[in-house]
Amino acid sequence: MKKKRLEDITLSIVIPCYNEKDNIEKIVDRVLKAPVPNKEIIVVNDRSTDGSDVILEEKIKPLVSKVIHHEQNGGKGAALKTGFAHATGDFVIIQDADQEYDPRDYVKVLQPLLEGKTLVCYGSRFKEAKAKGYLANRLANKFLTLLSNYFTHEHLTDMETCYKCFKREVIQSIDIQEKRFGFEPEITAKIAHKRIRIAEVPISYDPRTNEEGKKIGFKDGVRAIICIFKYH
Predict the structure, then answer these.
(1) Interval 24-47: pLDDT, tens
(2) Which residues of 152-171 are buried (b: 16+ CB within 10 A; e: fewer)?
(3) pLDDT of 93-151, one tens digit each?
(4) How far is the C-alpha of 223 from the C-alpha of 53, rounded, in Å?
């Protein structure tokens, strides 16, 4: 694969947003300041009920490439599917609307793709980094990642990470069926089916608590297990 320079590519950044009125302006500001010269920012409002839709229309829309509103709440996977379909950049990365992930890490996650080493790269919260977040969440993540690796034959340390970066044609060629957080094991399995080796690079991580609005829960963990078996 031919090497590319950062300044010669466009990165599409898909931000699923559901009830993030306290965070959406902050994260968009951080994304705008990320050290990638050419950015296409796509925000998908998944039928927020907390006023996020008003903020997106009045304050965010003039700053980004596209704001798309779902008429019904579909879940993170549904929002990402919409965002991916509207992406036109060379590469596509996922950005959660909360403050857990640092957009300054985009360059790290992009590097293996720019160098032509792979078509997909994940930013790992646990590779060469001290463990952060709730112990239960870390253990669940480790279990799900190991189980996913068993079926996909990948060697990931963080299958559930937000920062997944794809060559646009790769992600747009995949039919995403999972509406919520089952997207993570589903997309990993379907990439593996394409015989694409997923690269991993370490990233920073600042976890928020359940009280601060963390949305993933026990049922999502159970669904992830089901998805690992379903899509392998």
Answers:
(1) 999 999 999 999 999 999 999 999
(2) bebebbbbbbbbbbbbbebb
(3) 999 999 999 999 999 999 999 999 999 999 999 987 665 566 778 889 999 999 999 99
(4) 28
Tell which residue, 73, 205, 58, has the closest CA to residue 128. Answer: 205
Kindly state the tokens that stand for 26: 């902050």
CA pseudo-torsion sign 157, 161, 163, 169? positive
Q: Which of 146, 76, 78, 105 is nearest to 11 (CA)?
A: 105
User: In sequence order, what are the beta bridge partners of 120?
Assistant: 166
CA 19 to each of CA 73, 74, 177, 216: distance values in angstroms, whole numbers, following the listed order = 11, 13, 23, 14
120's enclosing H/E stretch is: strand 120-124
For residue 59, the tally of other CB atoms under 10 A from its CB is 12
Contacts of 146 (CB under 8 A, 6+ apart): none
Check if the beta carbon of residue 90 is closer than 8 Å to that of residue 168: yes
Element (H, E) at 140: helix 135-152
Which amino acid makes up residue 30?
Answer: R
